Amino acid sequence: MERVSQIVDHRGEPIRVKALTEEVARPSMTGIRQAWHTDTIAGGLTPERLARIIESANQGDNYDYLTLAEEMEEREPHYSSVLGTRKRAIEGIDPTVEAPADDAQAVKIADAVRKLVKHESFAWLVQDCVDALGKGYAVSEIMWNRGSLWMPRSYKWRDPRHFQFDREDAHALRLRDESDLLNGIALPAYKFVVHVPRLKSGIPARGGLARLAAATYMCKQYSITDWMAFAEVFGMPIRIGKHGNNATEDDIRTLINAVANIGTDAAAVIPESMSIDFVDGRKSGSNDTFERLAKYLDKQISKAVLGQTMTTDDGSSQAQANVHNDVRIDILESDLKQLESTINRDLIKPFVDLNFGVQEDYPRVVWQMPESEDIDTLVNALEKLVPLGLKVEASVIRDKLGLPDPDKDAELLGQPQASTEPVMNRAMHSACQCSSCQSQAKALNMAQAVDPLDDLEAEAMQEWRKQVDPVLNPIEQALDASASLEDFLQRLPGLIEQMDSSDFILKLAEQTFKARGLGDEDAG
User: What are phi and psi of 428, to 5 degrees?
Assistant: First the structure.
């Protein structure tokens, strides 16, 4: 009997342990999930055929639409370029892992998730997920490996044409399968990463940038075809052969052959009595109409995919590019947030549940825009607020900076401690009047470039115990003689008469006078 776990996914589907180790959506040479597709939609696309494709997708049959979306990326350089730019904007940002708390268990789980994210296969998963931008959704199957931990050994991209939306709610994705040709089968829990970017409100079947760009793509193909036909006719000058009234049929055929061949051979031999005139074809039609139309259509695709056209179409300066960015920042941030939601729901939570059990709070994989100004602001704020008592979890700051938790035996960076050795050495050498010590003291002062006030401080600290003891001894004696705090407090008022602070006050006045003199000297 198949083992069914009590843990359920976000849809309420329980985990079937056997399904986790099987390849559920494997394609085949034959059947409903074929590995090879020979169908073509983009070739000979007409308005009528495009309308039928869109209508079929609206009714749940998205096979032809997905085929068209795939071919658009392969056939149209501009669409492929701008879509690739939007994808790579996401792929170029490294993810970080945020621990939910600082306790040992939370840190342990977060470290395991970091190891998962650092694996090279995770980058391929992200690349496969963002393929959903063009097609409307993307599916990757998790190939779990069961060892000391449940770990994905790989993520396999699955052809989106092998899936369909639920016929009742139009939102849940189901796997096409021979066991239910009409409705497909439900996806097993914790087995698939399904990314459905929310580019617009409504049912997912009506999403995808390819749907938005399809009509523009079709119009551009018409424009390019007509442009090529125009270039073939008017690209070379029109050749006109002239012969005399007495020319024979053989002479005329010779002239016709010469006119035809001169377009390709760039050479011809004709009798002296004949001539060939060249007429500039550009005077017979507008040669830039098709180019302007193609550029206009490219701009519409750029707006649809990137949200702007400046960096891709207008040849703008680098300064303008830095302002507008390749992808509009708000669009990129939205893409990243939606990707975060998918990865944390379909990969991180299953990974944690399978290995550590259901948690109240889970670590999160996040993609943050790399803005150095924000980091500087954060560091400056912490530098000022933490000494004032602001309490901040160290793991939160490490996560924001993209730094992992340190290993137990790792060499750690810390705040440098001020060394007292130079001051002590100067004090010792200054106290001794021998020539050797005086020379060393002078050398230390020159090497360390010590401020004169440092020497004054060292001098004052030489006999600090002798100066302070007459003040502190009565207090220490009272503490030793007291049986309780109340007893000590009663003795305290009379201690002032026993304290001898004359040496301390004299030394303090002397050092103050010297410091004032050094200050006046520097000011002069």
Answer: -65, -45
Q: pLDDT tier at 301 (50, 70, 90 boundaries)?
A: very high
Do 72 and 66 meet the contact criterion of CB atoms below 8 Å apart? no
Looking at the structure, tell me whether residues 49 and 83 fall in a common domain.
yes
Each residue of 422-433: pLDDT tens digit?
444 545 545 555
pLDDT at 82: 95
First to last CA, the chain: 96
Residue 293 within any structural domain of the chain: no
Q: What is the DSSP string of 305-332?
A: HHS--HHHHS---HHHHHHH-SS-HHHH
Predicted TM-score of the model (pTM)? 0.64
Statement: residue 71 has pLDDT above 90: yes
Name the percent of the chain in helix, strand, coil, to the closest 5. 55, 10, 30
Residues 362 and 491 in one domain: no
Amino acid letter, 103: D
Domain count, the chain: 4
CB neighbours (10 Å) of residue 20? Answer: 21
* Strand-by-strand arrangement of the 192-195 sheet: 150-158, 138-146, 192-195
Residue 489 to residue 493: CA distance in whole angstroms: 8
Q: Are residues 199 and 120 in the same domain?
A: yes
β-strand pairing of 173-177 with 163-165 = antiparallel
Per-residue pLDDT band for 446 (boundaries 50, 70, 90) equals: low
